[in-house]
């Protein structure tokens, strides 16, 4: 137990699911209250602002469709991240892995010359491979050379961004793009079908939901899942039990990177139908998914809920831009506050905190 | 226009552009040396840039702006310190949340400040006698400003403190083995708070430099990823201020060259170099003995609790 | 269990909602109050492209009492479809105006989705029954700026910093170079690309790179006054772009290009109000408006064609023109401006013969370039030095 002049922090021996849930809810509410202050500064009552946001993000057909569409990449990446986080692999590189998946899919769509029915399936396989490869490099570096995973995954993001920029300015610049930095549009057979009148590319959504279920089963009921959990919770015990850290780390990053790659395929095959500027494709999904996975407490099934929640926030950002004339950046403030309150609240979960006025 | 002038002007611009990189890196080195990974540098930089610009605009005094920028960056970093050190939260996530917050807050408050010209930016200086020295003169003493020189002076100072003073040993031991440091009576938490604050302060000053001296102007998101380069640089420098200086100017040169060499080399290639180099450097250094001498602080990003384990 | 139930509910909601019928927004009736939505690619505070469009929007709203407008700024490319839908369905806009080339495909898809609404796309080339295109182009003004640059350069190296290597920017670079060479056959135009519309640090370093190469007059396509400031810091001349940038350098800015998008907007919206432009007859409507339609203006600020600081220098440089005789650059610029503002467009910068920098004859003597050739222009005029992609 640690004592300072005013704060006692004592490790809890047991954490209950209900406590976790309650603390998370309180954290989010606290974030919403603080964010409300910013709305007030702009002269908009927070109540009205949240009403507009909820109505805009959920209360209309268009709004709900947009929210679901935003949830798709968050879901895929988030599920992958829960697996990686379980093994204590801090994958900050989902942005880059998404982009590599997008690049791989674009390559197949534009240059492979495959017959139409094969295009989309091969694009998904290629996208998975691209993202997985990008994720495996940092995994390898961590296990074989002991190099910090946060740094390597972060750096790889930027390498991926500049790789994509080079492609769209150079060898892959589309002849029909009239000199702009885009590839040509994908052929129609490489377009994902969307739910009527919306931008929901449902195959990717279904894939995400399925993978969430599969990963849940993997983690809770299979041997590999068991190994992943042990590596994450007690690396020494894992070593003692003969669990190969190399194999486990590579497996989790294969999954995390691959899923992010799939999200990339979904974005370019379902929304953009071409490659454009990398930031217009990844749109911070890779970073937001970190919060999504975090909030889901590393439970793949819970990601379904949390990805939807954050999709509401993003959608809300679009709404406030149009209806309230508020700066879009407010959403970053939102996300930052939520993330911050969440991790701040962790202390109440892991430790029992009490105040004392006794000195040391 | 010969080779000589080309090199001189490139190096001169490198000095100007490398200064904020160096400032941020020096600060992050200290934070990480004490064992706290601060991924919120970008957020602190941009908060510094915003507050420095508005202060300079309102008061007409750019140096006051720089000061305020640094202080705001420092205060911002205290949030990260509180989360990482006192609440023992995950440092990666805490840092990321501060980056988001910083970008968001500066974007929200900065609306309406875009496009305003600063009446009194930090002015360029040409040192009378020294600027005539062949080669070095035009690079170092012509068209730079006081902040550039102050930053250069910081390097030996911070190096000396880190490696040759008691304070430095304290900091390094907290980062390598906090349990031992604690048993020697060192207040681990306080050291970490101070180092993180220094990191935020310097990041804020770096941001202020951008908005009050380098450009000078305010634009949303104007740090454009410089904070992430700083994180890469910190590794590249092996957590050593002297190497940090070389690294900052090297990375700065890469940016400048991406424009100079545009007719011949793809700019994306040059812009990706800093990040690829950071990884390369880590790989090269990871081999055994070298790591012992030049590796990361052992306790980096691990929260310390007395009596645990 | 709770999680699984929630999942099923969400998916069901999505499906149900998708199958529900679309609420179609109604077609506009001429004479009714008109609501127009504007979509910008950048922030209106950029003092560049988006700022100019927003100024025009304000002028329209002030001019027409029956007009109501709404705008969305900083829309990423790829997102325009979503905002168009919001403007049409949630805000009830009758007309949506998208102001960036990158919005082209998204606008077209939206036009097909909302056949009763009217769409206007800036700087593109795809149209539909309910989607027209428009552009206020600067190439004539860049030519005039080039004339002045050729006269003012003392190093015979003039700079042009461009955003993207697209036909619009290349056309402007070519027009500029034609002007420079007309006055000064020894001068070259040096190029650098930024690969972004708005990036002050990149603009700054590109300017520095060209300053180091010896350039002393600066023109550019970038949405900030950074290059004006950089040039001024070295005492060099520059031409403002898009918005009045005079205040950033009253001592060194020479002239520039100013957009008056309101010329187009006022014309088009009035026609929509009157019913002559509807959601069914726009397939061939393409505004290609220039000096004579007053959609663009030369100057560093409205009403000031040339900065008086430079009058003497421009009057001192003489040029021999086959038609006009020996004439000072100052007078030449004003004369050409008059010729191009004339409804019959007596003069065009791209009058043949014009050679590209590889020596090929691209425009034969006695001919001009067609609008199509102008909008797809991708070759470099003789005199341009540097990367072209």
Provide a short characterization of the protein structure.
The complex is a heterotrimer of chains A (360), B (309) and C (389). Chain B contains 13 helices and 2 strands; from the N terminus they run H-H-H-H-E-H-E-H-H-H-H-H-H-H-H.
What is the radius of gyration of chain C?
23 Å
Strand order of the largest sheet of chain C: 12-10-9-8-6-7-17
Secondary structure: helix percent of chain B: over 70%
Shape, per Cα inertia axes of chain C: globular
Q: Characterize the biggest β-sheet of chain C.
A: 7 strands, mixed
Strand content of chain C: 15-25%
Distance between the termini of chain C: 57 Å
- Number of continuous helical runs of chain C: 12
Average of per-residue pLDDT values of chain B: 85
Quick one: overall form of chain B? globular
In oligomeric terms, what are we looking at?
Answer: heterotrimer
Radius of gyration of chain B: 19 Å
What is the string of helix and strand elements of chain B?
HHHHEHEHHHHHHHH
Q: Which structural category do the helix and sheet elements of chain C fall into?
A: alpha/beta
Care to describe what's here?
The complex is a heterotrimer of chains A (360), B (309) and C (389). Chain A is 72% helix and 3% strand. Chain A has 360 residues and is mainly α. Chain A has a three-stranded antiparallel beta sheet with strand order 1-2-3. Chain B contains 13 helices and two strands. The longest helix of chain B has 31 residues. Chain C has a seven-stranded mixed beta sheet with strand order 12-10-9-8-6-7-17, sandwiched between helices. Chain C has a six-stranded parallel beta sheet with strand order 2-1-3-4-5-11, with helices on both faces. Chain C has a two-stranded antiparallel sheet with strand order 13-14. About 2% of the residues of chain C have low confidence. The longest helix of chain C has 18 residues. Chains in contact: A-B, A-C, B-C. Chains A and B meet through strand 2, helix 6, helix 12 and helix 14 of A and helix 3, helix 4, helix 10 and helix 12 of B.
